[in-house]
Amino acid sequence: MRRGQLLIILAIALVGAGVACAAPNWRELSALAQRSPAVTVGAILLLLGATSGLFAVTVLRRAARELHEKLKTVAGSGKLEYVDATDRSLVPLASGINELVDFADRAVTDAAMRLKELEIQLKVATAQRHHAQAILYSISDAVLVTDPFDELVLANESAARTFDFDLAGVSRTPIEKLIKDERMVTLIREMRQSGSTSGRRIVEHAIRAPGSAGGARAFKITLSCVQDQNHDAAGVVAVLHDMTKEKEVAEMKNDFVSSVSHELRTPLASIKAYVEMLIDGEADDDKTKREFYEVIQNEANRLSRLIDNILNISRIESGLVKINKQPQSLMVILKEALEVIAPQARLKDITLEERLTPAIYQTTADKDMLYQAVLNLLSNSVKYTPEGGTITVQTVVDETKRKVTTRISDTGVGIPPKDLPFVFDKFYRCEANSRMAKGTGLGLSLVKHIVETVHHGRIFVESHVGKGSTFGFELDLCE
Q1: pLDDT digit string (tens) for 142-193?
Q2: Is residue 236 part of a domain?
Q3: Are 89 and 42 in contact (CB under 8 A)?
Q4: Nearest-10 crossing angle of helices 286-318, 244-279
Q5: How far apart are CA 171 and CA 146, in angstroms?
Q6: Count of structural domains, the chain
Q7: Angle at 301 (CA atoms; ends 298, 303), nearest 5 degrees
Q8: Radius of gyration for the alpha carbons in the chain, expressed in angstroms and rounded
Q9: Of the residues 242, 262, 284, which one is the last residue of a structural domain?
Q10: Fewer CB within a 10 Å sphere, N or C end of the chain?
């Protein structure tokens, strides 16, 4: 039905409805039609119009109700569906609704695609972040990452230990609240304010952990700016490399060189002096010459032992020494060393006592190196034991733990408690006993390297001033 026809019907319906309402009853309307043919035609037309109008209104109401019910169904289901209009007059409205459905469907599809893309990007970003955090946490150096507001973004466990803060919940916390070292905070701020994204700054700084009783640790700090999407400075990365050990090693090397130079200079000076006296003819008789020759020989031997000890320690520490481990009887090695040291002990009237286990107990060892270690310990005991003293060599076997322990005890002068922790250090000599015997301070250090580094054993010392000392070592028994 066209729009014009619909309007005519509606007009006729309204007129017919008006006449119907104006007439008192149907009888009056019939009488009026009989008196005038025109009225009769008009009445018929009015009746038809009224009937058609009522019919049209009914149809329109029914179509609108159907359309309304469909829209309610679509709204209730939450799904976008097309709407069909049973009446032509509602086609434009249904078409408009269907266009909205098309538009909404496309919008929902685009939104779903965009959501998928964002989810993928989020997963990739999350994976990259976890990967970066895993790398960051695996780095032994302390790492701090800050944002443009000098707030902490990332840090690893090494940084937390260095600056004594808890990693949990520190993200987006101002660095001055976490780092108590003012110099470190200043370095980060200065780097961020510089805005340099092409270079980095390296400084050395000593940091003392809050509440730490130890000394400050030396760090090499490398600072660089983080770039954003516009290649502008968006934060700072600070990497702190602990150089404390390296500095200690460097100092030890310097001390080693200085000590070696001093130890080498002493025998060389003696040799040079006696040679010059011989050249100048100050030794007129054979007895004096013999004395000079003996001094030169002793100093040359001392120099040779010093060089040998230095080389042996260096080879052991560098792993270049050749080791030939075989099942060895510790009793046999101790017996051989006692036989060699016996003449020196007799010169001082020192008694050598043996308390050794049977030869059946063996340990896997390099015989020559272990013999050298035992000989050094026995030689020290003879040097620092007064005349008439006693040196006891004892071995104890623990079959349960599969261990054999050797103890070399003397009745010598003993070692002060303050010196005990350092007796195995290179070139260390106890000041209280330095006048009693000459030495280089390398013998005990070499013994420690032979026992612990080469044979993976344990060395120990016990001493009481004026009563004597006990040096010992523990090795594994052969299976």
Answers
A1: 889 998 888 998 888 888 888 888 888 777 889 888 888 889 999 999 888 8
A2: yes
A3: no
A4: 160
A5: 9
A6: 4
A7: 110
A8: 53
A9: 242
A10: C
